[in-house]
Each structure stands twice: as structure tokens, then as C-alpha cells.
Amino acid sequence: MTTRKGSISVKTNDIFPIIKKWLYSEHDIFIRELVSNACDAITKRSTLARSEGHETPAGKVSILLNKEAKTITISDNGLGMNESEVEKYIAQLAFSGAEEFVQKMKTMGNNTAKDEIIGKFGLGFYSAFMVAAKVEVESLSMQPGSKPTKWTCLGDTEYEFSESTKSEVGTTITLHIAEDSLDFLDKWKFNETLTRYCSFMPYPIGLMDLSNKEATEEIINETTPLWKKDPTTLKDEDYKEFYRKMFPMDPEPLFWLHLNVDHPFTLQGVLFFPKLNQSKPIQENGIQLYSKQVFVSDSVKNIVPDFLGLLKGAIDSVDIPLNVSRSSLQGDPNIKKISNYIIKKVSESLKKLFNSDRERYEKAWEDIGLFVKYGCMQDEKFDEVMRKFVLFKNTDGKLVTLEDYQASVPEAYKEKLKDKYVYFEKNLSDESLRKQLQAEGIQVLETDQYIDPHFMQHCEMKKVGEQTFKFASIDSEIENLLEATDTHADDIKIKDFFKQVLVGDNKEKEMTLDVDVKSLKNASSSAYFKVDEQMKRFQQMTKSMGNSAFSMPVKKTLVVNPRNTLIKNALKIWEKGEKKELAEKIVHHVQDLASLSSEGLTSEDKEKFVSRSQSLVQELSQFIV
Ligand SMILES: Nc1ncnc2c1ncn2[C@@H]1O[C@H](COP(=O)(O)OP(=O)(O)OP(=O)(O)O)[C@@H](O)[C@H]1O
């Protein structure tokens, strides 16, 4: 035989231009497709040989770049094909696969289909024609007595078989690069794509650039990635080194977990908890998805729940469908199982770390706290395990769990604080109140304005087992805890006096300000602001969601402490009637002091405060001179 012509039996003979047009930005996937075909062929050869009791040479893929001849050659020592197999698998199957692909693109509409299919498998061998004007396949099958064969095709429906001199079992594919794709012959560009897709493929992949006479072959991949190794043989340093290779710009990871499951789906992987850079937004797409060590995508949305989006690393599974639309991915039972498995593993590993090395857990809390709280709100199973291990800073600056908090409540207050957690809003709550509770040995939990209002609300709405949770802000709880039992006849007078000065007949003011009198054990604080707990939550939530449209006025109550000397004196001055103006100034001052020790003064109030302070100090100095 010299040559034999054949014709591809597809109905669409314009596949090539269509694919070229649609997949313009993704031309480089031909590298992944051809190299993974080569690896598959090597695996098939060794599996077949093993079943027949033979040895096979170590698998190897070699890639040659030849700028002068404008060719890229990919050779493997896999099982090879004889002529009829090339005809069946390459000429017919690969092309009909491509035709099916084009039909799908046509029916699904341009952009959706592109998003869903590109970057996934499916185009296979045909992708070679995205960059090549001519493709030659030379192959020698492993079957004894096979004759080598050569198939040549220009990307249209015609092809030709001719004789080949190939003497080693395996397949060599030569791409004659089209004029518009010559940049793939550049080693730097080629290598970049090759390492992106093929860094962990299971057989050594050698790359050689023939345009550099001194160049030698470089092996570009690690054939046994970390996730394929037995975790019991790995040391911390192995994980850290792997992380450095995958994410060279990142600081050392905090900790990691090794995933390995065979049933009911197969999945291996390593997930790292990165050290977050507070000044940079959280980087998503830190988890790479592989299928049989072939890079598929760095978007694992729908597979890994949102709250684990900050994790980094790799997961490798053949059970994640690669060639289906996103919506069907969501309904896929395997995906749900995989997602649940990952959630379970993450929560178990955090729990283990907490129990075995609490110091390390606490150190990592700054980086993981947000995602743990977010995870509890998003996923019930995660919540069941992790709520116990959520930490808050207490008054002493220690990180404590909710259980620790309960245990720290002094005996005398246990009944009053049953199931209740007193919180202090960082930069908003009144520091003097915290000090008063501290003097009684009562800790408070420091909360932020972003995630904590949501987390607290979540805990209150959702029990874990039989346990209920109730959070109370320090200003609303302090009177329950520290109110002195004795009441004084002056209490009503003080309330009226303050109300008259601060609210008077002003109806608008009345909507936002109320006055109450509570004598606290500690007489040093003159007054503090209290906001109704539900109101406060609503305000926190809308604020944390950045919703200023809802910034409705919040009614605050100025709680005045009648035991405080300044308050007592102010009442006396007021009642004497000669220096009513001074008494009024003191009242305003008390109010401003309460604002100052909680959320601060507005700039308008600040000005008034400063000028009033000056006049008060002047007045005071008259008494001394
Ligand atoms: N290097 C090779 N050695 C041996 N057989 C090959 C080689 N490349 C391709 N083939 C054969 O050609 C067939 C078609 O390849 P193609 O890449 O189009 O699709 P696939 O690999 O089966 O599927 P997909 O790429 O969509 O995962 C393969 O199934 C295989 O039988």
C-alpha cells in the first residue's frame, strides 16, 4: 500500500471555521487535549499489558517545538493504533464528536455554550485543528504483528493514509502550525500553557525547543502530586513545599487537610487554609479542579460551597461531570455528596485542631474566623460541629468559645445570665460599662459590626441540639445585672429634670431620645446610652449590608445614674433655680459624655461640646480663684 484516501462521514463540513470562531480565546486547550490523550494511551497500554502478564516500558510523553519547520510534535509510548483504529477513533469518532459539539453550540446559543463547554473536556483530538493547518498522526499499535500507519488531514473532511516508518510502539502527532498561531512555537508561551494544564499529569512530559541548539529536554511535571501520596508518609514540610509551588506569592499556609475517598465517589485532594492578607480582598478561585491529574478548571463554584471559597489547593475527581451545563451540575447527586464530604472534612479538621492544639487554632482565628462564622450560617452540618468552636475576644483579651463564656460567669450571676451572652460592640459600646462588669468578674464578648450581628441572629434563631442562645448588648443588659435595689425619691425628679432639658416640647426629639434613671452599683459613671436590643440588631444588620436607605432614626435612651455625684449636684443646682443655665449645661455635658464613651459625637455636637467645656471650665475657675 502506498496511500489511501478517505472521507469523514460528518454532515457538517464547516466544523473547522465554526470552532475556530467560537473558541478563539481558548485555542491553547489543544495542548491539554493532546497531552492527556497521550497519557491515557500510556495507561491503557500498561493496563492491557499487565492483564496479559507483560511488562511495559516506563511511560513518557515528549514534545518537540520546531520553529523552523513550524511544527509541534507530541509523541507517546502508549498503546498506539493500527490503521483501522486511527480511522475509527480519530477520523470518525473525533470528528463526529466535534460535529456534536458544534450542534450543541448552535442550539445553546453563543455565550452560554461557550462558557459551559470551554475549559472542559469534549473537543478532544479535533482541537488540534484550532492551531494547525495540517495534522499528521503516525502510530504503531502494541498488538503483535501490527504495521505502522500515517494519517494526514488538513482539517476538512478529506484525509489520507500512507506508509510510516515508525518503529516504536506509540503515537506521534505532528501539528503543522497555521500562520495565525505561530506564537505557540515560542517556548515560553507554550510552556506556560503546558504547565498550567499538565503540571501534575501522571507520566513525565519532556519539552524540547529545537530552535535552541544547546537546549536539552526539560521534564515539566510532577507525576505524583501530593494529593496522590499516602498522607502517613508526608511531613509538614512536604505540604508547605507543595503550597509554595502552587502559590509562590503566598505566605505559608496556616494548616491543611488531605482528602481521600473511594466510595461512593472518588476524590483526592489537598486543601489549604491560607494566611489572609487583610489589605487584599479574598482571592477566590484558589482551588484547582483536576480530573485524573489533568487540570480542568480553577472555578469550583457549585462543587465547593461559597464559604469555603477562601481555601486553596487542588481536588482531583473523575466523578465531577466536566461536560455538562452548570445548572445540571447543581442537581448532580455526586456533586452534592462531594460538597458535603468536603464540608465535613473541613469541620472535622478544625475540630481536631482545636482539641489538639488550641494555641495554633487561636492564632489562626484572625484568618479563619470570618469563614467559620459564615459557614455556620450557610451550612447546617457545619454549624452543628463548628458553633462550639467559634471564638470571641473577651474583656481580658482572651479568645473564648461560647461554652467558655458560660463557664466564666461568676456564681452570683449564673441565674441572671443563663444561656445569655453579653456582647460589647467594638468601637461603639460604652467602655465604662465594660469596666463595671469587669469589676464584678463578668466578661463580655467583643463583636464586630460586619458578620457578628448576623451570626448572633443566626444562633438565636437556630438551636444546636437542645441548646438555645441569647445575645444581649452590654447597655441593655447592665441594669439587669448591676442595678442597685434601693430606689431614691429623687429618681423621678432627676428623670423629669433631664427630660425637660434634653427633650422639652420638641416632638421630633421625643422620637429619638428618652430618659431613664437606673442606679447602678458603681457610682462613677454618670449616664450611658441604651438602645432597644431589637432596634439595635436591625440597625446593625442594615449597616453591615451597607444599606443606607434604611437609616431610620433609632430611639436611644439616656440612662442616668442617680448615685453619681455630678447628677446629684446638677439636680440641686436646678432646684435652687439661680443657675438654671449651669444645670442645663451639665445635663448636655452628661449626654455628650455618654455619646463619647460609646459611638462618639457628630461633628456638630463635637463643636458644641468643646465650647461648652470651655465655658464650664471658666465658670469652675471662678470658684477657685
Ligand atoms: N495518543 C493517542 N494514542 C492512542 N489513541 C489515541 C491517542 N489520541 C487519541 N486516541 C484515540 O482517539 C480517540 C478520540 O480521541 P479524542 O481526544 O477526540 O476523544 P477522547 O479522548 O475519547 O475523549 P475526550 O477528549 O473528550 O475526553 C480516543 O478515545 C483514543 O481511542
UniProtKB/TrEMBL annotation:
InterPro entries from the UniProt entry: HATPase_C_sf, HSP90_C, Hsp90_fam, Hsp90_N, Ribosomal_Su5_D2-typ_SF
Keyword Signal belongs to the record: no
Keyword set, alphabetical order: ATP-binding, Chaperone, Nucleotide-binding
Binding-site positions, ATP: 33, 37, 76, 81, 96-97, 171, 326
SUPFAM superfamilies, per database record: ATPase domain of HSP90 chaperone/DNA topoisomerase II/histidine kinase, HSP90 C-terminal domain, Ribosomal protein S5 domain 2-like
One MF term in the entry's GO annotations: ATP binding
Recorded family membership: Belongs to the heat shock protein 90 family.
PANTHER family with a match to the protein in the record: HEAT SHOCK PROTEIN 90 FAMILY MEMBER
Name recorded for this polypeptide: Molecular chaperone HtpG
Organism whose genome encodes this protein: Peredibacter starrii
